[in-house]
Amino acid sequence: MMQPRMSRRTVLRGFGTALALPVLEAMRPRFARAVAGGSEVASPVRMAFLFVPNGMNMREWTPKDEGSDYEIPATLEPIAEFKSQMTLLSGLTLNGGRALGDGPGDHARCVGSFLTGAHPKKTNGADIKNGISVDQVAADKIGKLTRLPSLELGLEGSAKAGNCDSGYSCVYTSNMSWRSETSPMAKETNPAAVFDRLFAGGDESEQTASRARRDRYHNSILDFVLEDAGDLRRKLGTVDQRKLDEYLFAVRDVERRMDQADKLTGSEDGVPDFPRPAGMPRVFDEHVRQMFDVMTLAFLTDSTRVITFMYTNAGSNRSYKDIDVGEGHHDLSHHGNDREKLAKIAKINRYHVEQLAYFLKRLQSVSDGEGTLLDNCMLMYGSGLGDGNRHNHDNLPIALFGSGGGTIATGRHVKYHRDTPLTNLYVSMLQRVGAEVDSFSDSTGALEGLEG
Fold it and tell me: Is 367 exposed, middle or buried (0-12, 13-18, 19+ CB in 10 A)?
């Protein structure tokens, strides 16, 4: 007996809950999307932008050779298994990040221009002005296809005012997503809040009551949709039943990890700390990974196709004692070619990449259409500064993961001519998610060479 076709919008509903589903076989006849060139694919292409601060130790980031036969540099060794899914792009430039007569403030400009390509107005007052970011262009063009047009995430909060970098507002240093020239999109830093946003259903009062009930009785969000899930399961074929079970297990697994973060833990000196907001882990890598968990769920359920994520805000002087780096990150980035400082910068860079490896593994582990979730993503990782000591905005450390639904020839290191705009890459990415554009910001066209 052939199982009935299902709408891609099917959700499991319960008290204050609407659990979106992954793509099931029963949905596929109704779910196809045209991409550049007119071909049809069974799954959408997603885009994510991950920012790390203070540039890189570029000698440990950049391969010596071009093409596919290159040796993985030390910083990227934690993701060596994803070499075939990675495209390293050298030579790209953010002209908007340069001083252009405005003097110091490269950290603020490196974030302000990172996704906009614009040159932020130098001010620490209310008269901020930047440009629209690539993620928000995508959200405007394709956001209507998903429940959430975009997600803006990070580990440190977004500022609304203040002087953070040589006369530049803290708004610039802590926001890389901009809805308009004067309206940044504030980040969400709490994984539990993102989780609730993904699976909220009913009106606001019902959602609040549901959250309170779950907290009081230690319920899972799945407890509220068990009846709906059981009814659906009986209608599905064997393959879809297994996929549904795997998905529900994954949702519960993320919940368990966030529940552990809620528990009262001891501080380094043994004195109990005060309770933290739900889903806000003390440990850096646990915070990052919980965010990557909810980002995976967001893409898996097609709740959104556009995500931005900032490891930390620009100019972060966070220390990384967990990896024996006690000095501040920003202080170390002014290394003056000191070998010891450069080694510690490389250690921080590698640690950030280790967290990225976790995200890539999560995406790679999820089947999606004829491939995996990673296959149908374009995940850009990098910084708006090259060498943190030089504060340069050319030859940026940029890596792209995933093949964009098979439209990108991966597994290569591609070197571009000096001053090739980073925004050319954004034109290419926008085209691949279905946002038909010919230009963006200071681009000179689509980025050549992505197809091999």
Answer: middle
